[in-house]
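Long-time lurker. I teach an intro course on protein structure, and each term I like to show students one example going from raw sequence to a predicted 3D structure in token notation. This year I'd like something fresh instead of my usual example. Would anyone be willing to generate the tokens for the chain below so I can use it in lecture? Attribution to the forum is fine with me.
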Amino acid sequence: MLDSMFHKKRGGRILIVDDEPNILHLVSKFLRCQGYDVITAASGEEGLEKAINEKPDVILLDVNMPIINGYQMLNYIRNNPELKDIPVIMLTAFSEAEDVNTAVSYDITDYITKPFDFVYLCEKITQALQSGRKHKARK
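-- Reply from a regular --
Happy to contribute to a lecture. Here you go:
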């Protein structure tokens, strides 16, 4: 099934913010093969800068990062008129109900826990691009 997904042209600019180099590499490689324009950031600080300058269509955001964590970045995004409507999908190892509820309180688009399925991730990105932030978050 994965082979049939490669080389499809989808469109859309995706910002991946994660301090784990392997996640950045694997997710960006997969999404580029899907036809997405991919921007990566290895920290929340770099992610904010790229969100401001690049205006991505969707942001994939980890929670646990040094200096500026995912929740701090979300707070800034949701309070910035130019960024507030960008769909944000949390992509994190935090899987407790409290973690999901905290993320939902920031009006995220979706919540995906690591480890994750690449096909599922691609489906969630497609939904986020189609429906914007109207898509309800769920674990």
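Some talking points for your students: The two ends are 23 Å apart (CA to CA). The chain has one domain: 11-128.
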